[in-house]
Fold this sequence. Notes:
- This protein is an alpha/beta fold and 234 residues long.
- It has one domain (2-225): TIM Barrel (Alpha-Beta Barrel), CATH 3.20.20.10.
- The chain is built from 8 helices and 8 strands.
- The protein has helices at residues 2-23, 42-50, 61-71, 106-114, 143-151, 171-191, 207-212, 222-225, and strands spanning 32-36, 55-58, 78-81, 99-103, 121-126, 156-162, 198-200, 217-220.
- An 8-stranded parallel sheet has the order 7-6-5-4-3-2-1-8.
- α4 (106-114) links the parallel β4 and β5 (121-126).
- α5 (143-151) packs across α6 (171-191).
- The longest helix is centred in the N-terminal third of the chain and has 22 residues, at 2-23.
Amino acid sequence: MYAERLRETLPRVREAIDRASARAGRASDEIALVAVTKSHPFAAVRAAVDAGLRDLGENRVPELEEKVAEFGRPDGLRWHMIGEIQSRKAARLPGLADLVHSVGRLKVARKLALGVGAAPVSVLAQVNTSGEEAKGGFEGERAVEEVLEVAELDGLRLEGLMTMAPFVEDEAVLHATFARLRETLALVRRHRPEVGDTLSMGMTNDLAIAIEEGSTMVRIGTALFGARPGYGDP
């Protein structure tokens, strides 16, 4: 089922990325595609790997552990932690996730750093640029200051920033949300040029606008795999 679906959906998603990149005057190979397999079974992961996808996103530590144990990292497969991180589970991520997108609290960042071994962990600082209370991440006037504190932690390599836009159709709101993340990263890099330039922003419903605003990494689940089991037809 998943393999058949991806034969139809993956070309459409790649075409959407190509179109958005062309409108923005960018090369489509500047944008990494993270296939969000969260809540989908092993069959979805297998289909994704067979389809040539090499960046997979999960939002729960236990599920990430299960899938990494099952599939490992064949042919450069990279695992992304994209969901909210409970501080008590943060220390389990070093050596498990290749990139942790959702470091949105200093407490979590410090716990994550404590679990680091010899190699640093690559992370993105999550910034709440929408102003929605339900969204996690650093926010407001202190966001840049707190992100800089994350950058200073031994054991973490800050590769850039991540945000989640509100689920709305108002394109002006989406443009503003993504533009704020780009501007925040510019401020952070002005203080610490060694911080990476990754902007993880854009999902199924807003990837085109995110790319127009500078996204370098989109997180796509529904458009590839369909609704998550338990959330509609799989």
